[in-house]
Amino acid sequence: MRALLPLLLLAAAPPAPTRVRTPGGSPPAPLTTAERAAALEVAANYARLFGEAVPAGGLRVSAAGRVALPMAEELSPEAIAAAWAREQLDTPTRREKATVARGPQGAYTHFLGTDPPGSDLWGEPWAIIGFLELAAGWQRHCAALLPPAERGRCALQVGDFSWYEDRRPDPLGHKDHRGGCLDLRLFRTDGSEYEAWWDRPDDRPAFAAAGGGYDRALTAAFVRYAIDAHSVPELYFNDPQVVGAVALPGHDDHVHICLRRPVLP
Ligand SMILES: [Zn+2]
Of 64, 128, 186, 250, which residue is least crowded by CB atoms under 10 Å? Predict the structure, then answer.
């Protein structure tokens, strides 16, 4: 057993943070001490909250010092193709909506939409940590609301966090994500990993015919939780029956949420 210990410690250690090149940008500069410390703090919180290390290559820093939301698993082309069949993603537009990566412990997933791979999960380090705390806390909260077989529906389906740097509007189409806000799909009743609308049926005929789609109760429970337990300062979503959400045009198929920036002592 003693011989295993160093190996176990090695397995739990975070990967080295690496700088990625922004499209069109200059070659990546070495990380500053502060950037490295901030990325490692993200990794430490990920490990603390989910009990596993960020995988190798999963701790990425942009030229502007933003950190990418770490994922536990990038799905293989075979797994994505299987999802196309399972989810009836039969057109290019629908296929863009497939899940491409999973976070730790089923807490969150990522889909690309029309964004280039690697471009849409950037946040200021404090916001990435804030999201990890929100996702872990919501997992526990949601687990108490649903029977075990249905807890997959608790996953936060992340569309966009922010762009590599502070450009407004950013190339992802957001006026104001600022490295601290993100878009989440609405929760669904049927376990499908696809977008839902609060005000219209699923655009896939078989899913619409089966009556699956928007789960108002679970979405409202999430909004309540995010406001009460995480004091989120900004939350846009258009269903008037969801208490606490502020209506804003364009927010019928996702919840836009900004994380609360911690006050430094
Ligand atoms: Zn948004």
Answer: 250
Task: Calculate how far, in angstroms, residue 1's C-alpha sits from the geometric centre of ligand 1.
Answer: 49
Rounded to whole angstroms, the Cα distance separating 108 from 187 reads: 12
Say which CATH number the domain at 245 has: 3.30.1380
Least confident of 7-21, 147-161, 241-255: 7-21
- Cross-sheet strand order for the sheet of 18-19: 18-19, 60-61, 67-68, 122-123
Split into its structural domains, the chain has a count of 1
Residue 22 lies inside a defined structural domain of this protein: no
Residue 14 lies in a domain: no
Q: Report how far ligand 1's centroid is from the alpha carbon of 252 (Å).
A: 11
The neighbourhood of ligand 1, an ion, using CB within 5 A, equals: 183, 256
Residue 175 lies in a domain: yes
CA of 147 to the centre of ligand 1 (A): 30
Give 4 Cα–ligand 1 centroid separation in angstroms. 46
Q: How far apart are CA 29 and CA 62, in angstroms?
A: 10
Which tens digit of pLDDT belongs to each residue from 129-184? 999 999 999 999 999 999 999 999 999 999 999 988 887 777 777 778 888 999 99
